[in-house]
Amino acid sequence: MDKFRVEVISKTPNPQQTIYAAMHQDYTDEFVYNERNSWPSESEAGEIIVKRLLAGQRGHYGPLEHPQIVFNCGYFPHGVMQQARTHRVGVSFDVQCLSYDTEITLVNCEGETNEKLKKSIGELYNIWTKNEKQDMGKMPLRVLDEGTGIFKIGNIKDVICSGIQPVYRVSLEDGKTLDCTVNHRLFTSEGWLTMGDAVGLITKHDGTVLKITNPCYLMCNGLAVAENPIEQNSHHKQIQAHPVKVKTVEYLGLQMTYDLEVEGNWHNFVANGVVVHNSFRYTGNQFIEVAEGKKDIEDVFYLRPVGYYADRQGKKYYYSPEKRTADLQWCLEAVKQYKADFESGMSEEHIRGKMPFDYRQHFVVSFNLRSLLHFLDLRNKKDAQLEIQKLCELMWPHFQKWSPAIAAWYEKTRLGKARLAP
């Protein structure tokens, strides 16, 4: 469990003042926004919420649903995400992806592009699903050598439909725009960052952008550089990535989204002129890398540490070092078989159904404050699965920092008691 990680992507600023304003509006004829200069401070608002709304455990709890927090959760076993997804009210999940009309930079054999080669990621998905994978897999696209900053040629390995997701438009100072989810990784002047982290995105509970707090430069397509003297007789012009500053970010709403998986050494591609990371497939590619010795098996599969545990009837048992080693070997044999099946032409979906269940997975999840309390009630208790308890433990300090008065009340009255929050 030492690899588990939870970080905050974005959160409603001054959540306790937000709740106070909603509470106050419920019981006044005045327009509370006009009184904002006389609102209590964030800490004072927290005290009022506890005293007037939470302490008596009665009242209208709707105001708790306005503030929102978005977590990026990493390296958890697949089963944790499956359990978490059962909490559908006030909870939303996301994976990295792009909108239908995002233009992918396809190239010819010399790495050059033109109007005839332009296709959107949605069009590529439609082609991919019409049994034209073999031809399309040979279709070159522009990828970035992250070491030299020079664009090279890569190939499409897969095109994925990621479903309907919240989408944001990132606008650059040179006029480029990119429509993507908050956690799609972009290549910035500081390296790979999710869009939300790169710009310091702060949003309202409905996704609307309040502000961006970080100056951010995205690495983009298009500056020709002097040819390598060794290649002076070549017609190929080298193209180098260059940074362009982000100007604005706006929320577009829910849209159908897609992503690519790219073959080769460089797992990126150019979307609307911006260098973006290819899909994280925490399945096939990860398994193959383990089979080939390129990735540590413990980074891909989760097994509990050696120690004493209890079954559902409370009976104790010991998970020994010998048993854990045997289980790791079983996982290793499974990835070797996965690689063999994949190379023989079997579909990823088919092979994945035969794999050990708890491969590690990253995900983004958002809660309004009320739904977060419900989640903690149900999953941060002694009879919950250990791994999802750990997820709650890692969320907890972020909650304390974000909404200290409410967190203190919750810790004193409800934490670990499995009582459903209001």
Tell me the total number of β-strands.
20
CA(first)-CA(last) distance? 31 Å
The major β-sheet equals: 6 strands, antiparallel
- Relative strand content: 25-35%
Task: Kindly name the structural category.
Answer: alpha+beta
- How many individual helices? 12
In which range does the helix fraction lie?
Answer: 25-40%
**Overall form:** flat
Low confidence ranges: 229-235
The Rg value, from CA coordinates, equals 25 Å
Mean pLDDT: 84
Write the layout of secondary structure elements.
Layout: E1 5-11, H1 15-26, H2 42-54, E2 68-77, H3 78-84, E3 91-94, E4 98-99, E5 103-104, E6 119-120, H4 121-128, H5 133-136, E7 140-145, E8 150-172, E9 177-180, E10 185-188, E11 191-194, H6 195-199, E12 201-203, E13 209-212, E14 217-225, E15 238-263, E16 268-271, E17 274-277, H7 284-291, E18 307-310, E19 316-319, H8 321-343, H9 348-352, E20 360-368, H10 369-379, H11 386-402, H12 404-413
Antiparallel strand pairs: 1-2, 2-20, 3-20, 4-15, 5-6, 7-8, 8-9, 8-15, 10-11, 12-13, 14-15, 16-17, 18-19
Structure at a glance:
With 422 residues, the protein is of the alpha+beta class.
Provide key terms for this protein.
422 residues; alpha+beta; six-stranded antiparallel β-sheet; 20 strands; 29% helix; 32% strand
Describe the model:
By secondary structure, the chain is of the alpha+beta class. The chain is 29% helix and 32% strand. The protein has twelve helices and 20 strands. The protein has helices at residues 15-26, 42-54, 78-84, 121-128, 133-136, 195-199, 284-291, 321-343, 348-352, 369-379, 386-402, 404-413, and strands spanning 5-11, 68-77, 91-94, 98-99, 103-104, 119-120, 140-145, 150-172, 177-180, 185-188, 191-194, 201-203, 209-212, 217-225, 238-263, 268-271, 274-277, 307-310, 316-319, 360-368. The strands form seven sheets. Strands 4, 7, 8, 9, 14 and 15 form a six-stranded antiparallel sheet that branches. Helix 1 packs across helix 2 (42-54), helix 2 (42-54) runs parallel beside helix 12 and helix 7 (284-291) crosses helix 8. 33% of the residues are buried.
